[in-house]
Amino acid sequence: MIQTNSHMNNSKKQVKAVGLISGGLDSTVAAKIMKDLGVDVYGVYFAMPWGCCDKTKAIEAAMQLEIKFITLQLDERYLEVVKNPKFGYGSAMNPCVDCRIHMFTRARVYMDQIGADFVFTGEVLGQRQMSQMRHSMKWIEEGSGLQGRLVRPLCAQLLEPTIPEQEGLIDRQKLLRLNGRSRREQVLIAQANNITGYSQPAGGCLLTNQDFARRIKDTFVHGYRNFRETIALKWGRHFRINENFKVILGRDEEENTSLIRYAHSDDIIMQMPDQMGPTLILKGTNPPNEILALAAGLIQKFSRYKNDSPQELKYWYVKDKNTVYSINANLISEVEIEKLRV
Q1: How many CB atoms lie within 10 A of CB 278?
Q2: Which of 60, 71, 217, 286 is buried deepest, with most CB atoms within 10 A?
Q3: 246 has which bridge partners?
Q4: Last residue of a domain, one of 141, 157, 192
Q5: Same domain, 52 and 139
Q6: Which domain does 86 fall in, by range?
Q7: pLDDT tens column, 7-56
Q8: Which of 192, 223, 252 is the last residue of a domain?
Q9: The Cα angle at residue 49 between residues 85 and 226, in degrees rounded to 5
Q10: Distance separating alpha carbons of residues 274 and 310, to the nearest angstrom
Q11: Is residue 59 situated within a structural domain?
Q12: Per-residue pLDDT tens for 144-170?
């Protein structure tokens, strides 16, 4: 017979659980269900370089529910998952099952560190074709070492009882049996509990985007120097000059600023003298003048001077911003630009 959570609270220490919080509707409702069952919830947000989740929304959700909250940054280990996924890719370069295994494994480590009883998520059976089908959910549970200790409150009654349910740490009868893509029930629960401000379902992880997938493949083929450098893949226009050199051009002031902030110390920054145009990041070691002139030509082509005679542009190394050099642009045609575009 399954004991109720209230009985357990009267006889044992409070149940503790780690919950993955994205700031979206599903994870917020799942956390609300757990908290209402008397569980001491430790929310975890995974900061992904090209993910779909909103950290601000996740923080707001944690504050609204009055639960603990930490952020875990995905790093080089995550890039290895993207490079070589055991369970393959989805529509582009998205290793959804392997990605979840990686995150849930880290959540399990955190669970062990704080002495929690289980991990829970806002997953719904059948909501996502690749990672939330019955077989893939089983793979994720086993691959992350969470056999029997991965609770999915929104669809738990459609799945086998977990150890926390069997031991009476949580009341299975108060968990849900949702399935499919509709979020109607989650919205009603949110409204009934005054849960607001959650992220709306969006386009998803950038790894599902074919254009972005090309950038990832190009980066894996030609190499990268650190994890921060790969974050810049989500900004700007990207051009592969040759196997040794690549350039990125910002499309607006915000991207220009972000590209400079995430540039590697060995990168070169190039701008128009009046800064009226895109900022360019040149990646590669000791570029010859012809590479610098081509990079300058790309900037000019995407500036208000695109129809003018070759301009003189300024550039400097990230590690020595006080030493400024100049180079005359080598004008480049639209056809040539498209051949270089990543």
Answers
A1: 26
A2: 60
A3: 240, 283
A4: 192
A5: yes
A6: 5-192
A7: 444 456 899 999 999 999 999 999 999 999 999 999 999 998 887 788 99
A8: 192
A9: 85
A10: 15
A11: yes
A12: 999 999 999 999 999 999 999 999 999
Q: Residue written as tokens 């609770």?
A: 151
As a residue count, the chain comes to 342
Q: Report pLDDT digits (tens) over 234-293.
A: 999 999 999 999 999 999 999 999 999 999 999 999 999 888 889 999 999 999 999 999
pTM of the shown model: 0.89
Residue type, 118: F
Instruction: Return the residue matching tokens 């006889």.
Output: 11
Residue type, 99: C
Residue 22, classified by CB atoms within 10 Å of its CB into exposed (0-12), middle (13-18) or buried (19+), is buried
Whether 215 maps to a domain, the answer reads no
- At 55, list the tokens: 């950290």
Give the residue from 253, 179, 4, 208 showing the smallest Cα distance to 89: 208
